[in-house]
């Protein structure tokens, strides 16, 4: 039986269990939890993987890329919110479009960029039925940010950088927050950057494991 064909109630109950688990894992922001409850994660992965969509595990999305486990998605967004409104958001690494859909419920606008054309097409197909009017997808090298839509109140990078790209720092609005995994291989940690006027405050958060941030487009 195709799990994609499961009834909405079944999927919603699986998400409720996922949200309960996120609470026990320490996610506190109710708006983030509500957004995680609302987005049908199983519709963003291959049918054969849909049964694991709500488990606490990363999943392959094709093109040797992965979607992070629900805890990491929720934690990054919670750190990004930091008690403010998300406002206008740049997501670098749209992948299958899942995180963009979660962000769209908390943001005024989401600009999600992806460097692999085939994945961007997949994200578009996944997002279409959800009819989210405030998500824009673009094929671009996100290490350069998205100058035509900058500045952003919030920037989330879904791939690990060796160092924070200067363009992303430059495209952060005053009062803005940016979250990025920094490091290589197994040695990665989330870096939170808060812009207060001309000052950029940096704090290190938990250890994570992301695919690398690459340059150029495919
Ligand atoms: N947030 C995604 C998962 C991202 S996986 C989701 O919800 O599905 C990381 C993604 O970052 C991959 O799709 C990879 O192709 C993309 N990526 C890596 N470097 C990039 C760059 N410089 N610009 C844009 N996307 C990039």
TrEMBL record:
What compartments host this protein? Cytoplasm
| UniProt KW keywords | Cytoplasm, Methyltransferase, S-adenosyl-L-methionine, Transferase
Provide the Gene Ontology terms for cellular component: cytoplasm
Q: What is its main location?
A: cytoplasm
Q: Where is the active site?
A: 68
- Write the Enzyme Commission number(s) for this entry: 2.1.1.77
Record InterPro entries: PCMT, SAM-dependent_MTases_sf
- Indicate the family of this protein: Belongs to the methyltransferase superfamily. L-isoaspartyl/D-aspartyl protein methyltransferase family.
Role, per record: Catalyzes the methyl esterification of L-isoaspartyl residues in peptides and proteins that result from spontaneous decomposition of normal L-aspartyl and L-asparaginyl residues. It plays a role in the repair and/or degradation of damaged proteins.
Q: What HAMAP family has UniProt attached to this entry?
A: PIMT (MF_00090)
Name the NCBIfam families on file: pimt (TIGR00080), PRK00312.1 (NF001453)
Protein name, per record: Protein-L-isoaspartate O-methyltransferase
Upper classification of the organism: Bacteria, Pseudomonadati, Pseudomonadota, Betaproteobacteria, Rhodocyclales
